[in-house]
Amino acid sequence: MPGLAVISLCIVSAVIGAESLDLQRADLRQPHRMALTASGDRLLTANLKSGSVSLVDLSARQTLGEFRVGQSLSSITSLPNEHYLLTDPVAHQIIEIALAEDQISVVARCNVPPYPQRIAAAADGRTIYVSSLWPKQIARLEKTDDQWNETKRVTLPFAPRELLLLPERDLLIVADGFGGNLASLNAADLATQAINHFPAHNIQRLFPADDGQSVALAHQMLSDLAYTNDSDIHWGLVMSNDIRWLTVDALTTPEANLYEGNRMHSIGEPGIGSGDPTGMAIAAAGDYVVSLGATDQLAIGKDRAAGIWRVKVGKRPTDVLFSPDEKLAYVADSLDDTISIVDVKKRERIATISLGPCRERTPAEKGEAIFYRGLSLEGWMSCHSCHTDGHANGLANDNLSDDSYGAPKRILSLLNPGDTAPYGWLGKSDTLQIQIHKSIENTMRGQPISAEDADHLAAFLQTLKLPEPIDVLQETRDDAQVAAGKALFAELSCVECHAPPTYTTPDTYDVGLHDKKGNEAFNPPSLRGVAHRGPYFHDRSSPTLSDVIGREKHQLPRDLTADEQAALIAFLRSL
Questions:
Q1: Contact at 8 Å (CB) between 479 and 436?
Q2: Euclidean distance between CA atoms 134 and 147, whole angstroms
Q3: Which of 85, 133, 269, 532 could form a disulfide with 115 if both were Cys (CB 3.0 to 4.6 A apart)?
Q4: How far apart are the first and last CA of the chain?
């Protein structure tokens, strides 16, 4: 794939510039993240679908221009002097742009570790940190003589997304893109101070709070102790949507109790679930706003005060910013290609700004909108809530996929679903459509969807592709070791259950891991992309591939030497 090289390479704007687009053309932009200019009268949106930046005049409440600068833009970060940095997770680049006289130009493009997600920048704008999801890496880049150069890179045990730089303490806080891990790194050398875990997933945004003594974040919590019945969903026991403040002291202490000194506000109450926090902003006075992607709402509350109000905005809001005077909130309505303006005190949407006309959506794009919609009972969750962007959160859920309660099972990834039929741990659904109906109606307790909508959702799921193997992304592949592991995989008869090229089979097998309801036979998930997943097995009993091979000796006919174990793991990491 183009752009997979991870050597930092900068290209000046004379080579690749910004394309000014016709504002009247019909397209799908999907504003994903936003930034305000220093004056506060202009808004820039990083558009995920079109790879463009939209420029909005907030005083006139109209879009001034749209400029295509990349293939897909997942974030935008402000630098001094009206420069901005964008992440392009398709081109595997960061892009520096400049705004002058309502025109956008590209200053530089830099290759970074693949699938960049977010950027944290020092105050002078000359040192930045980039999170790269699938390689599980953080890169530090420094600007010298107007050139970005990578000066440090570290690999984490989880896939990072959100970042927060705390310069007063020389700290970089990193949040897991899927599960509940939080790392604190020394900003100077990226040395790990602590990696802690709490039962959360879909962590969104990180904000300094309490004069830098705490970090605020939005997240979801899924309980494997609750049943996916009407009662437990109604009371928010299955899935909660929360804002939490964690102390920096706890985040920097290994194996700390993150609940000590923390506080939490739950967004949602019986009858009004308000699912999927996607963005958050906190005002100086303690007011906060949270965009709720599953229910098309903006939640408004105040720290250390009771009461949360919800304001209807556009479809799947993904980001929110306060105006400079903190009286207004600007919301990115990703599936409407609009910006909503909300009066925070009046708690009402007072204006909507169009980024341009939307074209007709394909069946898969219609399915994407269904995937992110709060289809569950009372809107507590969407498909994305458990399957983050189509992947998985590493947690377990007790639902009726095996026709019973009492045996929670690990949530499966939906990437490359064509590899995995039949579906579910027990292999009871022959098609994606059958599994979709079961998930929405039995697991989420939502209203039945039409056959057409199930087809659309299945079409979207078929577009979810696996990233490259992790050993390729981390540049750790040893071809000789992979070849030895592949031969061992065949010799040990692993291919009987995990047959290439999909590395699964449609049957069920008793692998000695019976669940709490007595189920003995399970359908093997595909091993393609297995190193991007974990923990492993239906009961999450093996945290790593080393545990699967070395401790559990999963269906191995004989003991393996240390070299054989390493070779087999190298082969699995290559899939």
A1: no
A2: 26
A3: 133
A4: 16
